[in-house]
Structures are given as structure tokens and as C-alpha cells.
Amino acid sequence: MTVERIDEETPLLTNTTNKTKTCNVHERRKRAPTPLPKVQISIMMLLQICEPITSQSIYPYINQLISELDITGGDERKVGYYAGLIESLFFVTEAMTVFQWSRASDHIGRKPILLIGLAGSMISMLLFGLSKTFWALVISRCLTGLLNGNIGVMKSTIGDLTDSSNRAEGVSMLPVVWSLGATIGPLIGGTFARPHERFPQVFTAPFWKAYPYFLPCLIGVGYVFVAFWITAFAFKETIPKKRRSRILSRASSTDSSENPDFHYRADRPLLLRELFTHRVVLSVSNYVALAFLNISFNALLPLFLAMPLNIGGLGLPPSAIGYIMGGYGAATGIFQFFWFAKINRMLGEKRVFVTGMMVLPGCFMMLPMISVVAQNFGVYALVWVMIAFTMMLAVIMDMAYGAIFMYITASSPTKAALGATHGLSQTSASISRAIGPALSASLFSLSVQEGWLYGYAVYVIFAMLSIAGICLAQQLPEEVWEEEEEENDDHDTDA
């Protein structure tokens, strides 16, 4: 099968062609969705939970761990700096390797890379639990990001397992299981840290006192261990052998000029520069904007809730903040599970994504409004109503992830480049997620210390950035791009 490459400026798309494509899109949306491969999708959801469990289980105890290692020289004001560094290292190192892992999955298959990622998560988490120095924490946390490229590979696998008629149903499950993992992870970390103190009758060995944070790491590893063997025995490779063999044979070609059809083969691996098509760049740019703004809001929210009233916060205790964040995660999961696919079919991917981006300025500006009300009337019913409304806006915003995922999947130049496309998107998003929390927290402190806009400048700045994100979202086409169809014999998956 050969596919000719056509630039966006090439005037070969007539009005008739455009009408035909529009009709095809409407027919695709109206027709009954293809049944999802439930076992395969279920395994992917099982693997999706591993990511937040391993990455977020350290949050409840990381500050205490930093203090106990005496990294700050007794200055508690520096704990947040070192803890933030440890938390960000995952995204920094993930950004360095996720593209390569995703691209490798196009060559040798999704399953081997998924298994390598799971094994890497287990090894790095065990090392983290055994760390006794700051640099040991740094190395183990870096290994977590370096060895685990599964987040991009899993999205590519979902793209393999679905088509344009049922992808909304498959995508709607991703935020649900992520929310579940993001709830379970911190619970594991908070419940099982320092077990010799919490459960002295059970954990009596000196080991648990010497390594007080090993147990939550071990429990997280236990879940990943089960997921590893389920994947090894029950998951079927989603890239057919025929396509893999063609990709590898094309990859062994040393000089594309010797083969005049080389640049037009849909089953060959693409060079990195060939990924930077207009639609890939546009889709990835919107994903990066969403990820950056979302994680900046998620970093500002607990900071805002915890800071005293006199510096623009609410002064809430950790338990109240936990209930708010937990309720937000649960609401996101429930909403996505029951309504995302229906709303996406009714409005279309662009409207869903633009709507999600449009509520972001409101999310940021609600925080100073809540602060003003709290300073004048106290933290009473009206403040809690405003917090609930802000969380509702954030739930709507989270719908944008499912929509942009479908744009990214459809933007892949060829089926053989699906993994590389998702790898590129995840690399870019990881970089933005490493920058967002540090930037938003720093701007919060500067706004308060310098009195910029009465201490509320950080929210105005991010609201303006959100408006720029909306303008970028408007550049997306009304419908996702038509995807390349594979030959029938390519749809047979390996046993």
C-alpha cells in the first residue's frame, strides 16, 4: 500500500472532495460504534492506574522524608524546595526518554515496551524506598522517569485498539482510572509510611525502623507486579507482525535515495523531522497548552487553600484540602465515565476541547474572588459554594484531554508513526508539566511579597495565558483528520 504525501497548501481538494469528507464524517458519527475489545482495553486501564500510584504515592510523606534526612540543615523553609525538586524530576527525566520508548514501540511492538516500563517502575520504586541520602532519592526518582515510557505507549495502544467510531468510549475511561490511581496512591503513601509507629504490633523488625518509607513503595510495587504478569500472559500485541516486519525492513534501508518509493511508504518508520507536519504540531501544541495550564492550576489550588487569609489564601487544614482534592478527582472520574462520550458525539471534538479551554480563565480568576469574599465575610457557606463551583469548572476543563487525545491520534502521518506521534506529544507535555508548578508557585510568592495587583497578579497572568490557549484551540479543524485505513490483513493481532 502506498500513500502519497500532500502538503496542506496543495490545491487538490476540490469542493466535491470536501463535501464528500464532510458527509463521511457525519456518517461516521451517526453509525453504531464498533464494539470495544473489552479484555485488551481493561488491561490498558489496569496499566494506567500504575502511573499515578507510583508517581503520587510519595506526596504524603516526601516533606517529612526530606526533613528527616537533614538535607536542609534544619531550615524547614527549604523543605518545599527540595521536595518540589524530587517531585519534578519524574517529569523532567520522562521528557528525555518517553519519545524514544514510544518510537521503539512502533518498531518492536507495544507489549515489550510496556513490560520494560513496568519492570522499570518496580525497580525504581524499590530503590526509592531504600534511599537514605538525598542523591539516592534523586537517582531513584530519575530512574522512574527514564525507565518508564508507558504513558505514551498506552495512548498509542488505545489508538490501535479503537477506531473513529468508538474512540470516545475508549478515551472516556482514561481520566476515570487516572483519578482512581491518583486517589489510591496518596492513600497508600499516607497510610503505610512509618509502619513501625502506626502498626507496632505487626512491624517489629528493625528493618522497618531503618527504612520507614519502604512499605508504601513495596505495596505500590506489588500492584505493578500483578499488572506485569497479567500483561505478559493476557495482553495481545496490537501491532501486527506483518506491519512490524515491514517497518523493520524499511528501517534497515541505508539510503532512501536508492528506493524511489521510500518517502511514500505508509508502513515505514518516519524520520523525526517528518513528524512535524502542520496537524501534528497543531495538535501537540494544544495538548502542551492544556497540560501546562492545568498543572499550574493544580499547583496553585492547594497552595491557595493552605496559605493564611492575610496573604490571600484560605488557611484550611490538610484534611479539608484533602477532601476538596479528593472530591474533585472523584467528580472528574464519574463525569468522564458517564457523559464524556455522549457529549463528544453531540458537540464534536473541537467544541469539547474549546469549551474545556474556555473555563480555564474562570478557574484561575475564581481563586482571588474567593479570597476577597473570605477576607470580608470569613470562610462560611458562600466560600464553600464558590469552591464547589470552581471544582465544577475544573471537571469541565478535564474533558479537553479526551478531545485532544483524539486529535493527536488522528494527526499521525501514518499508522507506523502512531507511537512516535504520541511520544512527541508526551515529551512536550512532560516538559510543560515540569515547568508549570515551579513557575506558578514562584509567581504566587512574588505576587504576595511584592504586592503585585494586591497579591493577585499570578491569577491574572495565568488567566491571560489561558485566553491565549483559547485562541490556539480555535485553530483546530472542526473535525478530526481522516485516519489512514490499513489493509485487512493488518488487523489480525498476534496471539
Q: How would you characterize the overall build of this protein?
A:
The chain is an all-alpha fold. The chain is 72% helix and 0% strand. It has 20 helices and no strands. It has helices at residues 15-30, 38-56, 62-68, 79-108, 110-129, 134-147, 150-161, 167-192, 195-198, 206-210, 214-234, 241-251, 272-275, 278-306, 318-347, 349-358, 360-377, 381-411, 418-450, 457-473.
Annotation keywords:
single chain, 495 residues, mainly alpha, 20 helices
For the termini, the CA-CA separation is: 25 Å
Mean pLDDT: 79
Broad structural category: mainly alpha
Helix and strand pattern: HHHHHHHHHHHHHHHHHHHH
Report the sheet with the most strands, covering strand number, pairing sense and barrel closure: none
Low-pLDDT runs of 5+ residues are: 1-22, 251-266, 485-495
Indicate the percent of residues in helices: over 70%
> How many alpha or pi helices?
20
Radius of gyration: 24 Å
Strands, total number: 0
Shape: globular
What percentage of the residues does DSSP assign to strands (E)?
under 5%
